[in-house]
Design goal:
8-stranded mixed beta sheet; alpha/beta; globular
Amino acid sequence: MLVSHLVDYGVPAVVVESWRRRMGEELLPLQEEAVIKGRLLQGESLLIEAPTSAGKTFCAEIAAAQAIFQRRKVLMLVPLKAIAAERFADFRQKYAALGIRVALATGDYRGDDLRIKRGEFDLAILIYEKLNQLMFENRSVFKSVALVIVDELQMLADRDRGPLLELALTKLLLLPERPQLLALTTSASNSEELAAWLGCSILTGASRPVDLRLGVLSGCSYKSLSFNQKQQSEEQLLQQEPCEPEERLLQVVEAITASEEQILIFVRSKRAAENLAEMLAERREWSAADELIRRLDDQLPSLLRDKLVATCGAGVAFHHADLAPALRQTVEEFFRKGRIKVVFATTTLAFGVNLPADSVIVDAYKFEAGEQQGETSVVPLNWREYEAMSGRAGRFGQGKDFGRSLLLAESDLEAESLWKLYVKGEATPIQSRLESLDLRDILLEFFAANSAVSGESLEVILESTLAAREGVAWSDAQVNSAVESLDSLSLIRSEGDEVAATALGKGCKRQGLSVAGLRLLSHYLDSDAPSDRLSWLVAVASLPEAARMPLYLTYQEERGRIWREALLEHLHNSGVNGKDSAGDWLTARADRDYILSREEQRQLKCGLLLEEWCAGVDTLTLEARYSTHFGAMLQLSEMASWLLNAAAEVARIRNCPDQICRLLSQLAAEVAHGHSYTDSIVARLLPAAEERGSAIALIGAGLERSDDYTGITFEQLSEIVGSTTARRIQQSLKVILQSNDKKESGVSKKNGKEASMPLLRLRGSMQGDRVPIRYKEAEIDLTPKSFSYLFKLSAWRLLRPDGWVSKDEIEPGFNQAKNIYRVKQELKRFATGLEKLIENNKSGCYRINLDPEQIRIDHDSMESFCDMELLNLSRRLQQRLAS
């Protein structure tokens, strides 16, 4: 089938022409079958089961283009943020010039969250958690969604991601207007059952566009079986078999690369990936691009960066989760360009990220995390992991006739075992992992996503899960017990026969907290809640969600008293003494009679590391002091920031003291940025924690405010942060400075005339426990609660022609009138008359009676304010102005 024929199926001609130029004239067989047999472009829901590189992703692009052309929206679900970022960059490059609005939502990227929530996109790429969040925040978006693409459906069987995906898909299946589903997966023995659950027809692709030889190297001989033709062959790869396994592996790599092939080698541990890369770089050298070394040198100094610079100089690299994202992306980019010949990687590279190779070598074992934090054991790969790793070889469009996957056997017996279990192995079922979740979490997910659920509909919901189809059954007693527990924790409320989530229950799930995590967090937020930073950093590290934080104890740390001593030193230096500051539960850990568990030691280590992270201690020092790596610290900061933001929202919902809410929000911002200067322009120029070193260098050079950059040359900036970062800073500065007047005034011009002088000026900055504002020439300081109300009234005056805002839009609950009265009383103290401008239409709506031109909001300062709701309103205003 010709690509040009897609026009006959309703795909826009301009898009088809771009595909034809980029991909050639013909569709792959799988893509043709999806269009004709699978009725992909007739709105039929379809599950495509096919090997890697068969063309599944382009099937999704075809369906998405048609849906967007019909002015409907498309969601693409992916499991990992690295995959999401890659898809986003790819689709934006292909389709942004055609006018298609591509949006992205991952855990650490929230720039498009408001756009997605309001439906201002054509194609949105979401990780699974973000789809669940969208269900809680604005289900009406789904009325205009025509197609949902589920990439990597096999992740249903993943221990961590599987339950999230199953919950998201179950909610989609229960929508009144179900969108078309396109599910993409590798081989599965129960694909028909999966398709029936999803309400899809099934299309199976049994061949690859580029054949793949799967085999085992035993002795010096490589015996293989071709994927497409099922033909066996044998070739001599080594002349003499070395004694040592590592030496044998390196000789195999050298033999294969002699024919100019690129190789991915999957090994069982991070340490092995680094060591083998260093060993190969010492004995074999391919010329690396100068650009590659410059890119690596521009990255923040870290132990692994320096190791990577050394190996990449020889055309060899390693790739694992402890590398900072920018380093991983650089390795991937230059491997695709052919400037890196060999990459040693862990299993994390096997899924999702598009990194094809000519040959792949697979270690048949991996390290797997145990039930206790920090515990690991060596286990065999399962067949699906082997398939994913092997599928990296022989990718379409790379100019090779075939790819090669090798398993290395150390004996004839092992060779026979590997051949039977992997090379001739068969697809395994994709099974639900939902039962591993607490039933309370499962129920609260559905309560939070629906306005109300009856007992009868709850039964229907549970029966709609994949777990139920596989025979998992929750008894009435179990369900009733879970419901009673949720009710006792004030997470749900009953109204007759129906049950709905409370504000606390919705907040819990919107933030991705478990019920167990919320319960522990609520305990910390009770009357004796600590008021110091370290206590809260340790507290969030103790939540169940923090068990996945990648920070472990060394043997020496576990056996010694290092972290207790570090805590004692911190308490002494900071003047903390007793529960008035740090709370009994933290100061008790400094007591020499208190026996610290391994988990409590790890929590202390996390808290102390994050404290120094926020204080701006340089990365190399932190790596050495805490026996970790920069990539792991970035993961730690992302998770801790998420949990601190979640704690801040829970604190606000529970009406905790304002000082606790502000402390948690401020801590979340500092942890996310990697320094404490969150209210400076540096936090806007370099918002990512990965750039903390450059941000701290700018602050150290006195470049903290916009005015400080006046007259600063590119050469001067380059001396501080390097040329790459300096160039990006100058581009960002130009945008910020050009739009500064527009942002500050709210409306820069009206009917072609300059705006009148502002009367009310709002900034997101704190002075002690008050927020200062300015009205006319008077300085006014408000409590954070009153500032929040005044800010919302001002923002809605700028967003709506009449300025009226309902009380529920200001704040859920029943206390709006009381709080408006308090605002007026606070304002009355300053005798400016501003309180008289707050109007009530007697129908539950309020507004501030000022012209939009008379209101000025400093959006720069709002970026670091402690209230996320106000920050989102500020960003919404900026987007309105930009459009």
